[in-house]
Records
---
Amino acid sequence: MNNSVENRFFAIVCGALLVFVAPLFVLFLFLSSERADKEIRDHISVLLVANAQALAKPLWDLDEDSVTQISATVVSQGAIVKVEVRDQSGQLDVSQSTIPRSFDGKLVQVSRAIIYNTVDGPKNLGSISVYYPALGLFSGLKQEEVVFISIFIFAVLTVFGTALIGNRFFVIQPLMRLTAAIEATRQLGSRHHVDWQSNDEMGRLAHSFNEMQTKLESEEKELKLAHRRATDIYNLTPAMLFSLDEEDRITAVSDYWLLATGYHRAAVIGRNFADLVTPATRDKFVKRRQAESGMTVTVKFVCLDGRTMDVLIMESEAGAGAQDHLSLSVMTDVTELKASEDRNHRQAITDHLTGLLNRQGFEAVLDNKIAAADAAGQELACLFVDLDRFKWINDNMGHAAGDTALVELVERLKTHLAPSDEAARLGGDEFAILLPAKDAENRAKVMCEQIASIFETPFAPDMHLSASVGIAIYPHHAETAAELLQKSDMAMYAKKRDGKNGAQLFDNAMLDRARSRAEIEANIEAGLVDNWFEAFLQPIVTLNGRGIAGFEALMRLNHPQKGLMPPAEIISVAEETAKIVRVGNVIMEKAIANLAKISRISGMQDTYLAINFSPLQFEPALPARLAAIVGRHGIRPERIVVEITEAVLMHDNPQIRLIVTELRRFGCRIALDDFGTGYSSLSYLNRFPVDIIKIDQSFTRAINDGDDDVRQKSRMLIEGITTLSHKMNCTVIAEGIETEEECRTLHQMGLDYGQGYLFHRPQHAATLIDELTASQSAVARAS
């Protein structure tokens, strides 16, 4: 209560009295004291004048009795309490006093000289001194002044008391009631009102307070109702809701959350939410919540019974800007969705036929395997496996048989894989295998031997397969995943070119070949765009008279800087990149145009043109395209010979067979090139409408071989082929004739035509036309 309003008011009033009233009262007392002191001094002055004259004669006469009597008279006057009379000569000293012994106050002295008039004039005989008590502030007050002061003090006290009483009744009392209402509201929680009514400020204050309490009470009821409704919604919503404070402690959970997780509310309130998340995903949750105010994260939640479920947590700040940074989060069970996503992901990275990784999955695993190999201080071998002749199985035995073979292959392969190995089907009949090991090269060689053993047993009756395997080692051959896969692929293609069915370890020379191949690809594309391709012609002659019967069109690429480039590599790369179709169309167009020019030379009207066709060129549009070209140049169809190799026939593709039949029906003749170098050549003569058989030049060179056994067998083969061909009404042409002896021997064996450097080399059409024209002119002049 020391700081109460009443005490402060009392202190203010007292302070006002001390500051304003007390100084005035003191001033009044001081003036009264001064006035009384002046009156006493004036009285004493008059008295001293009279008594100084009365003492002059007795003091002159040294009449001590008279002096004593006069002094006694003086000391009895008014306020004088002591008188001293002294002779200047020191002979007489009279003192009279009425001061009581208990007096300890201050005395005021007033003195006057005693003068006696003699014949000789005035003489100072001595002095008289009187003493009176010093007056205090109250000593000089008169009775009427004391009455006035009493009335003034009474009035001041009355005003002061009235102010205190008024303050208590009109200020303190309503404030106490207001304070009591506020305290009761604070302690009891209910809205108490002030029981005070008046028309003054306190009344208006009490009225405003009561109105505020009424309004707050109404708002509290609405808030409680809203809170109850929110709580009901929070608990009845079929979603796992929970709230966290700024320290990630659980402050509230919904009934549905408790039902789904199995926990009791008392057991989880105040608990850190991260404690309910599996250790594997706990850091993810903590870091995400620290980084984001309204996070979305998927973690694994541990239920009361130990069951783990994948949950998606979406958080929003519920107390933004407040001291209690509470959050409202929705936890959704996404276990099934996560499992579905995992299944979809596995399906996305898994080959549906074999169950191995597909290319996408393999590329993802390859990076991880390289990182694991680095961490373990190991090497990593990548085996690129491509099946040989698998397309033939699909084309001849059906895709179902091919799929069955692939599944069986994978089952056999899995028996040789270690748990740390990884296998994938990259597509079609291409596979990749990763082998981590300290000595990855030796491990790869062992695996290649095991892969070779897989193919020893047929996958079905008459279904024999083999594989070409390329090997690249990390980090010796490659530094990245893409480079490792690329170089193993390059090694596999190198094995394919070297004869298939085996393994090939990558070496840097393959990069040179790859660059060379890339350069050839660029030259092919540039040649098609800039018209660098030429159709050279090599005459085919009769062996008995060596007259020109026809011409074989041969592809040449005439590079502006490099000149004529070897055709074998260009054809090989063009077939691998499927650009052989475009190249073949250009050569076919130019060769037929050249034949039309040659046909204008006398004696060349019936010569034919043999055109080589790659298997890729046998498109449905080929017969129509060929018919349009020969029609445009006025060439009879029977003058066109379509040369096919055994590689075309080996596909046994119904579409190729249909196109060949269509060309034959159109009038073109069919020639089987390089006869005797492939598989089952004689069966093709029976199944395809072949008109011309071209014996490969390897047989031509062997007929005069120094080894008698080789020479004898070669001649027997050529004679047999010629005899069978003639019986089937087929013309036989020998390729690669370079000597007169070869020509004579072949003619004796009954062959019809020959082709080789002995007769003519392949030439540019313009040069050949000039030679033929000059030859005809020479014959004409000789005749």
---
Amino acid sequence: MTSDAATATPAGGLPVTGIPAETANGDAPRYGLGASLQPADALAKTQGTFPYAADLWAEGLLWAAVLRSPHPHARIVSVDTSQAAAMPGVRTVVTHEDVPGQDTHGRRVADRPAFARDVVRHHGEPIAAVAADHPDTARLAAAAIAVEYEVLEPVTDPEKAFEAEPIHPDGNVIRHIPLRYGDETATGEVIVEGLYRIGRQDPAPIGAEAGLAVPRTDGGVEIYTASTDPHTDRDLAAACLGLRPEQVKVVVTGVPGATADREDLSVQLALGLLAMRTGCPVKLTATREESFLGHSHRHPTLLRYRHHADAEGRLVKVEAQILLDAGAYADDSADALAAAVAFAAGPYVVPHAVVDGWAVRTNNPPSGHLRGEGAMQVCAAYEGQMDKLAAKLGMDPVELRMRNVMATGDLLPTGQTVTCPAPVAELLTAVREAPLPPLPKDSPEEEWLLPGGPEGAGEPGAVRRGIGYALGMVHMLGAEGADEVSTATVKVNGPVATVMCAAVETGQGFATLARQIVQEVLGVEEVHVVPVDTDQPPAGPGARGRHTWVSGGAVERAAKMVRTQLLQPLAAKFGMSAELLTIADGRITSYDGVLSTTVAEALEGKELWATAQCRPHPTEPLDDTGQGDAFVGLAFAAIRAVVDVDVELGAIRVVEMAVAQDVGRVLNPQQVRARIEAGVTQGVGAALTEHLRVSRGVVRHPDLTAYPLPTALDAPDVKVVKLVEERDVVAPFGAKSVSAVPVVVSPAAVAAAVRAATGRPVNRLPIRPQAAVTAQR
């Protein structure tokens, strides 16, 4: 525990490390790092007045609609737009023939067409777009476009994609990683095998995709949308629109959560093209159905595992085959596969590993970035294997895990040394020792505690309680040589500071963190964060905790440069070094007390500013045997799930999730807990309910009625029993990513608890009711 932290004891009785003493005593610091500073937009979001992309408006705007394919795989014979174009109120209709620049795009591989040209490769792929005076007119015109299809047999089974006819000129295999570590021929005394399937989770954003494009006088366009990586969006849009990057400006509007649907081009290309063609502002707001069809989802994954161990339960070798269904286009599948293969054995020491991973194209809905991509799927599988191994050895599942946990200095199966703090044993101990929740009562007034809710549960006597454990890990920032860099500018004008950084506030709390950093470094309480657009230097995407590390690091460096500008004249006046001056509680003081003044007095009449960059140490791609230092840093978590299962009906209620997490350093206690709770809830959804149903490539019932999300009544009691603050010395502030690792570990923990309650194997997520049934009425 660091010197500026103390140990608090919550109601559960367990110590929570890393919380400043002021917070533990209820007297939290007002601002700066360690304070639970409220987000600046919290009140507006609570009151429903926060402006999202769907709220955009411009004088004289037109409305857009997109025609999407009803088939998962078809050859386009002809497209007739004449009837749509002739409708009153329709201004223009565009297809692939009207794309003036590059006709394909993609963040990693440029394999996705702006509009389908000759072939449709997934259900819901854009065919054409319309701009009209009224939204109803636009939708009617889109429906009036006549498309003649030659329906083709879809490739929907990823296992058959290897031998099937290529659905794309680049082939069906996007990437294959054959990881070989140690002795391939090694065997253990005890062997367990398993086959696991992970379903297609949708990001299910609060608001569907929307945006507004406004033409510019230089022939370019301004695009207002909920982007999480505006500079990449700008560059991709410019290439397709036949413009120079400086002719396209992307302005970020309110982002209602950032997952896969915000990290690919959803509405930008259609809007930009329509605005350029009509010379008018054009707005598009996707329906929920269009949102389900158009954006990326979590990779459905098939995993085959074989674990070898000795008689004492120590792992000898892990063998795995991992198959990711990427859908029609590459997107982030190569990155997700790298994480899945590298973390295939989990946070455990394994001397030998043989892992083969593939990402393949199919005619299923597209897959892309979703918290913990790759890591979440393998976590469910390797933790299922650990439970099987414990059962075969007759050993306590926690004890088996404890004998194999990773620590700092150990090696990943990629050959990379774990140099960051890896307190995995400490995390597992914390959740094991946490007090268990009380058992449910059988009285009628407590029926809501049973699986299924009020009037939905069976007999209390059919309910079994299960307790399960899971460990997991994620990598932070980009991997395999990704150039992670961010730029920030900090300006101070009297008592007010301003931060300019193109790191998008997606709900992860970066805007609040930026304020806290400047408050901490400069002692200025009032700090404003400038809205993001592409006139600012790039900061990269908002994924894998990178803005806390890279963008937060840039803000800190810029603030320290301003601090030097402020302190040097004062130090020189008193004949001392600026390093001998400190800023705390809004005051500047010298080591000997000779100088003591307020920050406000020192800044009076001054305007100071500085710009800085942060770039972490480089990484390298995995080689032909899956070896290489591919990751900048790692974060870990342990979760104990407590569930009640009605073994007659198969209904499952998650009673409690106890979480111990490796956070590096708590920068905002309230936000850390909020992000953990949100991550756990998303993971519980993946474990129990969230699965986008697809039949032969066609999405069935693409709406929130048929896609059940966890509600407030379904969300479990999340108890953060321990936050381990062991700072990563190479990370700014020593902080680690918080949001992703609970999503990764939660589904595995729930599955383990259901196994414990039912004795069933539970090898599929989400868990189907029949998998939890062990008794008949």
---
Amino acid sequence: MSKNLVIVESPAKAKTIQKYLGKDFEVKSSFGHIRDLPKKGMGIDLATFSPDYEVSADKKKLVTELKAAVKKAEMVWLASDEDREGEAIAWHLADELKLKPENRKRIVFHEITKNAILKAIENPRDIDQNLVNAQQARRVLDRIVGFEMSPVLWKKVKPGLSAGRVQSVAVRLIVEREKEIREFVPKASFKLDGIFLNKTEQEISAKLKKDFEKEEDAEKFLEKAKTTEFKVLNVETRPGTRTASAPFTTSTLQQEASSRLGYNVTNTMRLAQRLYEEGYITYMRTDSVNLSQEAIEGAKKQITSEYGAEYSSPRNYTTKSASAQEAHEAIRPTDFAVKSIGDAQLNRLYQLIYRRTLASQMANAKIEKTVIEIGNASLPQHFEAQGEVIIFDGFLKAYGIVKTEDDDEDNNEKLLPKVSVGEILSYKKITASEKFTRPSARYTEAGLVKKLEELGIGRPSTYAPTIQTIQNREYVDKREIDPQTREVVKMSLTNDKIKKEVLEEKFGGDKNKFIPTDIGEVVNDFLTDNFKEILDYGFTARVEESFDEIANGDQKWKEMMTTFYSKFHPRIEDVEENADRANGDRLLGVDPKTGKNVHARIGRFGAMIQIGETEDEEKPIFASLMTGQNIATISLAEALELFKLPFELSAFDGQPVSVGVGRFGPYVKWGETFISIPKGEDPLSVSQARAEEIINEKKKADAPIASYKGDPVTKGTGRFGPFIKYKDLFINVPKKYNFDNLSQDDINELIDAKLEKEANRYIQQWEKEKISIENGRWGPFVKFGKAMFKIPKKKDDTKYEAEELKDVSLDEVKKWITDQDKNAFAEKKKPAAKKPAAKKTTAAKKPAAKKK
């Protein structure tokens, strides 16, 4: 048996490290954290802020295996990542595995190479308690904020919602940007572009240096230009340089992978993790742009051999952020001799990191910029043409140029023909185009990461999970926004004639950008109104600074928690007691048919329109909003249109037909079958003929494609991809099958495998009571309705075997359930009749009806 046991947090990392260590070392993985705060309950003593950690159910078997391995080893090396999270993992392992200081060593490395591993073994240290405490402070503070704020949302907004220190601030950024866009009033102006010809008929494209606010001013300029002799008034050529960007940090990698490769933040971090674990790059969670001397020398050698000595310009970068840890390195290749790797997807990200690091060590690009001024003394404004020539490509040789969405789309710098001052030019065409100002762009994932970093909110390890969380909670999404249309004026001067046109222009469309949902806006408004400090960008950044101070040993984490909680908890109690309920209610106007108020608000199932008041004698009527509609922007006319749904059409094939809108969008209902109306199609425009067409398409799609043991098999595509359906079973079709051409053998194979899996799923089942004992991924468990419960140990403290569970009685299983949830079988009380609430008086609302 090996004398040394090395524990890392990832199996891929374990596999790579094992290659570099001899037979005296055994490398095992903890698969991340082995213990954490409990999933149910807060798990924190609020008097002392001591966390009550527990080993998660899925890690108990692993912990037992690690304890057995520890007993056989003389020395345990804790080799989790070098950040706070990694330090906490090492601390939890040491504590749970009962490792004594003399039998454990902590080692860290920012790259998984043989030299780095051996060097770490030669320079071990003990666990850094300051780093552990910084991670504990983050975990505990975020748990308290989430656990105390979320129930307030359940009570004041809607059950099932959640709040979080960083996620709520990220949502606030997106909501505020959306409100800014809604309130933006575009201003029109006329921009003039000219194409001029020199004596050799070469074209020069130029722009007028000033825009005109009014159409008549632009037209006057064109009239004057008809008879103007255009000359070259000035030619200026000046040298310039372009400088390479610093090597990648976590944030800049996420931004660049988005703009260059189209990767989202989560995908970028997943691929970077694999590159790190397989030894290709240094640690991928870093806010430092620093490079080691060894890396600078390696880059220099590669640049000199590949491009030549004139391209090499070694330099080190310093991080502007005060909280960045310069002891860490930027993200870079571990070996510059490795120019590409086999896996195509990994290689795309590796190439980006490789080229960015090389470029950072290369010479500046030298350019020559030429500016030509064109006009006449009689004209109030002159045209300007800009061109650029690269004299020496420098770092561009490795990295190239990428255009960002912030760049001016018209700023296409190009090579200009040779001209001299005083030279006469003729115009080929001068165009005056009406252009409108645009609001700030919605956030992309990369843009949101950049903004969070600028504000000092979160750290490299938090960006990806934060962005994932706010989407999972359905506070924001990336739905496509259809563009609107407006008229624009375009005037063209050609051959001394002015042609005026009125054209249509699309604007305001967007896709793959963050847009707040209705519930996201309501939750944000409630939190910003009632928890201003928690949602304050400065406060969130100061909390991050406190974590940094704890990590440096300059602050005690429990003192920080005491200060925070002494202000936070009273605010929670005050809001819970005194704040009004929030549902985003917006009074749209009055329904002309009934004379009742029309409201847009959040209801039990999401955004809806309500005609009438809840306290009226006659109950209000409701309609769901359609995809793309929003309670903050919907008009009265659009809202009233929704009440035309559902509507009945004539029966088809003996089954009634209707059109409506539900939780999953517009549909045609045929008998008991709901058929989605294609995206972008207005349900109010669906005629009898169109409904029958949609039904026939569904019938065709649902027609049996085969049979299995005499019963039909159909196929379709759902939320989780392509599937086949046999009886009541939905069976996913993996990519290895040709879904468009499934053979009978394929179908038999898929159904056989599913039936075998289902047969092994239930150990016991009581259908009437909706209770079952099932086999799960991590062992058997009890299921009651949709809830899952653990199976307790037997009296002798051993686990039940599957065979033994076949003989357990229903009463015993019910006892297991009630031990974990006392109210599981309690009869649900009918809600008491609500007293009519006193209506708030607003100028727009009609007065409340008098009580009888």
---
Amino acid sequence: MKRGQLRVYLGAAPGVGKTYKMLGEGQRRLARGTDVVIGFVETHGREHTAEMLEGLELVPRRIVDYRGASFTEMDLDAVLRRKPEVALVDELAHTNVPGSRNEKRWQDIEELLAAGIDVISAVNIQHLESINDVVEKITGVPQQETVPDRVVRSADQIELVDMTPEALRRRMAHGNVYAADKIDAALGNYFRVGNLSALRELALLWLADRVDAGLQQYRQQHDIDSTWEARERVVVALTGGAEGETLIRRAARIMARSSGGDLLAVHVARSDGLTGADPKRLAEQRSLVESLGGTYHQVVGDDVPAALLTFAKAENATQLVLGGSRRSRWSAITGPGIGSSTIRDSGDIDVHIVTHSQMGRGRLPRLRGSLSRRRKIQGFVLSIVLQPILALALDLGGDRLNLTSDVLAFLLAVVVVALVGGLWPALVTAIGGSLVINYFFTPPTRTFTIAEVNNALALAIFVLVAALVSSVVDRAARRTRQAARSAAESETLSTLAGSVLRGETALPALLERVREAFGMTGACLMERVDEDELTEVWRPLASAGTMTCGRPEEGDAEVPARDDLVLVLQGRQLAADERRLVGAMALYAAALVDGERLEEAAAEAKPLAEADKLRTALLRAVGHDLRSPLASAKASVTSLRSDDVEWSESERAELLETADESLDRLSRLVDNLLDLSRLQAGVLPVFTRPMALDEVIPGVLTELGDDGERVVVDIPHTLPLIEADPALIERVIANLVANALRYSPPERGPLVTGSSLGDTVEIRVIDRGPGIPREDRDRVFAPFQRLGDTDNTVGVGLGLALARGLAEAMQGSVQPEDTPGGGLTMVVSVPAAVTADLPVPGTRERTGTTSDD
């Protein structure tokens, strides 16, 4: 079945008109004859939005009962049965009421898409998971409902519903967003101009990144190499020299002039160039680039200008930053430098040459590679020029020189040419020199006849020595090239390993580096999953760039990692010396696959081990702590039913009270066990709301019974509201107070107090008991842990474990501290409730309701 398409309306803040636009699109498609239904839409009481519902079919909502209250949710099954062409589903980040098939609404939408139904939805930028914490820092309001970025990024269409902060505030002032009694509070808190401007910028930048990814994919699919200046991308070339920091900061300033630009640093490791870069200095420069928000890349290339420009064009760079040449003035006679060659071939890319203190101070430390074509040409030219000059000079020497001197002079020429041009120019010089010596200086002269045997031997030895010397020079150059190439490959492998160790997703990061390093358009690691007599079945494990092949043989190059794993590359054929390095990377990728699978197996085994450990502790607890109240209750009931003893009314009442207390204790223990099980399974329902702490304390004291009279409560009236689940926060405090009562001296009961710190409210339960040693403070929160206490009357050791688990489920925490003067203080931290229509924390007023888009 063809998968449906997803269209998302993205807004910067509530009230910009996402739902209105979504309904408008539904009306437009309905007018064209498309089958459109409303799966779920929330108008928030806005008149103009409600008017857009007219004429659209509405699938009735499903009613869900939870904790004595009724809630409405989208009826997913009804929409699937109705099977429209398009479904309108509002509030993409919404969390479904417990008991629904899926936890999140975006998961419901995934089912609709899988069924071939197109979906139109809406979401605010603050609900995206990757920037949820950034929004909280800007607005001071934590967002409980989030949606993974990948869900929104995978949408077929994303449309930004944009509005200036001033226009949105005017819309609110006119009563088009919130009710009149909420407008002033909203404008003075969440909807301040600064908050709205920051949220708007986040929405624009996030969407720009998504558009840019689509543009890059389009360019790769259509083989577009020219630069499209849709967005500033600044590439800075690093050599590992001391000037690197200057170049990076200069490039960062260039990028900062245009909002939303990218900074990319690249180092070219080559076999005949700058292979002697300082690894420590490159690592420092990489850290600097990443601290400035850029990314570091490394490519291998024998031609540095070509490698730089290939990388820059592949990344659609608009500007390239290079350092001024470090070569001396005299070295310019050997040819243009990297900067000149890069400028000449840069095309649409602007090249900046940045001056620095190291200019003109000689080349970087480097290993000479194999002899280039230019060196060989220079060797042939030197051979042609040097031989006639040397022959003329020796001829002018006349009778003062003999044949031995002539041979040695030409042998020196052969060595010089070999040092400049290598083997073949030296052999040409040796043969030509032997002919010149034979013709001009060997009797009889002016002929190629050799009259004496010793002269023939001398010429033969001359040619042999010249060939041996030139061969040694050429072999040394070849060995140097191999060593330099190996150094470049090692540097590239270490960079790849560093990328993974720095926290990048292992396989995708490795494949992306392979693609960049060898100038490929795509890289994919494929695994053989099945094999029959006729064909093999392969599946991709991870990929980078643009991959269009479904089998290894459809790529331009395939390098096996092992029998069932192949690294497939697209873009060009690999050279023989490149396959060795790619082979090492393929083996590294195979090791990563094995490592990830071992981690997954370990992760699957860990819960089993923890569960086994918990099961053992539970059985131990059942053998002692659960058995005691059960035995006590059974003994009391058995005694009451016995006909052998006549019980008085007071004795019967005492036995009934004992049975009742034992059963209550047993009920509490079972409830704790069930809640702990739900916490560990991650299915404990949590419904937080703004509430005052003094609403909780009376219920805590009531649950403690007579012991509650020993508790001292000192809650400041100015304490802000907290964001918590009323039932759960009551159990947290009750468990902590009960634990404090157990260890407090009779004459001095525990103290419960509270204070605010930033956007957090701290509740302290203070006792004057013996305290807990620091090394045991983590252990007390483990289930069934009582630090060696064997008294069965104190419970199974679930109170503190449950208190911490419940607090963390409400985005809070429980931490132990020393009480000054002796004892233990348990600190419960929970978020303060700060919303657009609630008073600022620290005021006495306790009324208000929340609202959302």
